[in-house]
Amino acid sequence: MPDTVSLTDAQQQLTAATATVDQLKAKILDHGPGAVTAEELGTAALAVEHAKLTLAHAAKHAEDQAAAERLEQLELLKSQILDQAGDADQALDAMRQIETAAAVLIQACTGRQTLIAQATAAMRRAGVPQASEGQAHQHAGLAWSNAFMGRSDELHVDGRRISNISAGVLIAAALHRALQQTKRGPGHLTPIAIHSMTGDLINDPKAWLKAMY
Question: Which of 100, 95, 213 is nearest to 162 (CA)?
Fold first, then answer.
């Protein structure tokens, strides 16, 4: 007999051994004590006891095997969790990249606001007219315009328009594009409130920025 048998086989062995003992007992009751020797009955009874122990061993083996399989599955789950969770250094590196990029945008946009205000004032003092009045060629290609119809204050230099840009708009657009890239909804950026955005800044930020710069 192998060291370990299945629960099914062990149960079948116990059933068979018990049936044998029951048959021997019935035989004694029906035909008298001479029909079955003590040795035969004792051997059959020992077989039942052996089958019970075999069943108990099979049950314990099955339980141990199930516990080992469960532990293996949990170890696999743990590995998957750790692989997909990332680490603090990865998150910190990404956060610092966002911080650096945002600082560049804020500095650039606030610098443009100051430039436009100062340059517009200087042009006015020098008698440079608004762009709507034309004749920029008479003023070294310079002109200026106040905010109007959704456009901000602007400088006009050789036909190029230099507009005020909100760093917040650019950052929000970048975050909105990140949501599109990862196929996630705005709720993934809570507590930042990111609203649905459309237009050239989302669809073609390069073209939008060239028009503003």
Answer: 213
In degrees rounded to 5, what are phi and psi of residue 156? -120, 120
HEC profile of 71-90: HHHHHHHHHHHHHHHCCHHH
- Sequence-distant (6+) residues with CB within 8 A of 165 are 109, 112, 152, 212
Does pTM top 0.70 for this prediction? no
CB atoms within 10 A of CB 76: 10
Cα-based distances in Å from 195 to 55, 60, 145, 190, 208: 66, 60, 30, 11, 19
Full DSSP string of 19-58: HHHHHHHHHHHHH-GGGS-HHHHHHHHHHHHHHHHHHHHH
pLDDT above 90 coverage of the chain, percent: 67
* Residue 58 phi, psi dihedral angles, 5° rounding: -60, -40
- pLDDT, one tens digit per residue, over 27-41 is 999 999 999 999 999
- Spell out the residues 6+ positions from residue 200 whose beta carbon is closer than 8 angstroms to its own: 207, 208, 211
Secondary structure (3-state) at 12: helix
Residue showing tokens 């760093």: 167
Stretch 116-129: mean pLDDT: 94
